[in-house]
Amino acid sequence: MKAKKIHKKTLKALDYAYEKHGKKLWGRHEFFGILQEEFDEVWDEIKADAPQANLKKEILQIIAVCYRYLNTGDRYRERYE
Predict the structure, then answer these.
(1) How far is Cα 4 from Cα 52, in angstroms, rounded to an integer?
(2) Where are the beta strands (DSSP E) in 1-81?
(3) Is the per-residue pLDDT at 16 higher than 80?
(4) 34-46: per-residue pLDDT in tens?
(5) DSSP H or E segment with residue 12
């Protein structure tokens, strides 16, 4: 998958996450918990020998979670504008 396509799909996943969960800031513990949940979903897809498309979708969600944290900042430490 080309970098531009990955970026576009990541932004789509990020938009979906904002629609579903809102844009409130996370703390580090929330970020880690959500990231861990996404990693667990990747592991579930691997264990199930799921199609590559399923695995890629879950990996894009990990990227979106990281992007969101970098984009919004930390509720307890700093905010990004």
Answers:
(1) 19
(2) 73-74, 78-79
(3) yes
(4) 999 999 999 999 9
(5) helix 3-21
Total structural domains within the chain? 1
- Whether the Cβ atoms of residue 72 and residue 79 lie closer than 8 Å to each other: yes
Closest CA to 72 of 30, 24, 8: 24
The CA-to-CA distance between both ends of the chain, in Å, stands at: 30
Taking all residues of the chain, what is their mean pLDDT, rounded to a whole number? 88
Q: Which whole-number Å values give the CA distances from 68 to 28, 50, 72, 77, in the listed order?
A: 12, 26, 6, 15
Residues in CB range of 12: below 8 A, 6 or more apart? none
pTM of the model: 0.83
Note every long-range contact of 1-9, with CB atoms under 8 Å and residues 24 or more positions apart, other chains counting. Answer: 1/56, 6/60, 6/63, 9/60
Residue 32's domain comprises: 3-79
